[in-house]
Amino acid sequence: MKNNSSHQKISVAVDVLLFTIEDDKLKIVLVKRKEKPFKGSFALPGVALRESETLKEAAERSVRERTGLKNIFLEQLYTFGELERDPRSRTVSVTYYALTDPGKLDASGADDGVSLISVDEILKGDPELAFDHRGIIEYGRNRLGGKVNYSDIAFEFVPEEFTLPQLQRVYEILLGENLYKANFRKMISPLVEETGNMLTGMAHRPSKLYRRKEV
Amino acid sequence: MKNNSSHQKISVAVDVLLFTIEDDKLKIVLVKRKEKPFKGSFALPGVALRESETLKEAAERSVRERTGLKNIFLEQLYTFGELERDPRSRTVSVTYYALTDPGKLDASGADDGVSLISVDEILKGDPELAFDHRGIIEYGRNRLGGKVNYSDIAFEFVPEEFTLPQLQRVYEILLGENLYKANFRKMISPLVEETGNMLTGMAHRPSKLYRRKEV
DNA sequence: TGACTTAGTAGCAATTTTGTACTATGATAA
DNA sequence: TTATCATAGTACAAAATTGCTACTAAGTCA
Description:
Chain A folds into 2 domains: 4-147, Nucleoside Triphosphate Pyrophosphohydrolase, CATH 3.90.79; 158-212, Arc Repressor Mutant, subunit A (Orthogonal Bundle). In chain A, strand 1 (11-22) and strand 2 form a beta hairpin. By secondary structure, chain A is of the alpha+beta class. The first copy, chain A, starts with 10 loop residues before the first strand and ends with a strand. In chain A, strands 1, 2, 3, 4, 5, 6 and 7 form a 7-stranded mixed β-sheet that branches. Chain A has a two-stranded antiparallel sheet with strand order 8-9. Chain A is elongated and about 60 Å long. Chain A has 6 helices and 9 strands; from the N terminus they run E-E-E-E-H-E-E-H-E-H-H-H-H-E-E. Chain A is 28% helix and 28% strand. Chain A binds chain B through residues 1-5, 7-13, 15, 35, 43-44, 46-49, 51-56, 76, 78-79, 81-83, 86, 88-94, 131, 146, 150, and chain B through 1-5, 7-13, 15, 35, 43-44, 46-49, 51-56, 76, 78-79, 81-83, 86, 88-94, 131, 146, 150. Chain A binds a DNA duplex through helix 6.
């Protein structure tokens, strides 16, 4: 923070990695670009930062404009500032990751041109992405994996009422490894409480529904 | 990342939290402001991001210009973008934290106006800082505490050859709690190797010197 | 009604963490 | 030259956690 030398030619963008889990796969919301560089490619939903909004507000706006979602989990990820990230101008991107369960996302009536794409596929390189967005997603995916163990982000991927097998699956997908049922339950039980309801209708024993316990 | 609407009035700054441990206390490098807002107050060393440099290069420049230090540990911390952070103009600050052992810092011949200040004192509010820098330091100090357990940052605070009691002290200061000698040694021993030298001259049993083991 | 499939639990073995108590060694001072 | 001091370093048991296996439970479906 020093003398701001007159006019600045550096743009500030805010991009969002909106993750969800659907069909037992980690997926991310991407938008199809309609403009000049990388036209037709998928990219992260992003906005140019306005002078009148904070970074987080810009991230919320980005999510809201594309998907209609409000009040979802949103946390800053990293800021990317390589020189040639954007061919148009020097752009610094502050990235956020957002998490939601797929139910909310379906219900929110997203734009056309908004797609849910498998993160694994993207990392394998299948849909090639605009800018450096593949690298950003790779970074975000790794952070997500690390965060599972020392935070409660897993709950963001399930609805308010969920079964323990559902929640366990979320952990397994984020961690990339299978967990033992008995241990998972011992670990998670202090954090949840039964709602009294059951999830029935499956061709096997029904499971209890839980909610997240306060504090 | 979207249409960059003509001229932008948002400045990008890069500020650095340069931590070290001296006299058994976590300290941070601050500079005394010589200019308009908060003149005379302490502030984090920072620079305005240049169009021709990456964020990390700007952070390195900030460290080098103030302290002369090169090639030190540097990692991005967080990006702050509240509206009223800087009274002069809307400024987004990308912050980095840097770590060094106090020996290097002394040897580097820092500027006048560069001070090493106790982080605990700052958090208690003693030297009041410019801008939102106290909050930034608080955030950085917490992250540092968390990082100790799943990274090797503690090694950055000691010289190449160090004793295990020295290294343990670093852990204790960063974690804010005392560790059991025996446990600490079991935990750390796979990461270090003896140099064959001893640190002698103390009025008690001398201790072996170690270095960090490769990979 | 019995087979199937997943939900949920019991409990032991292996490992890690926590904690205490001991021995070791150079400097210092009588 | 020897006892004392202060910290370095080690041994080992108790407690907690994790890893793993094997069981019982309860709906649906043929």
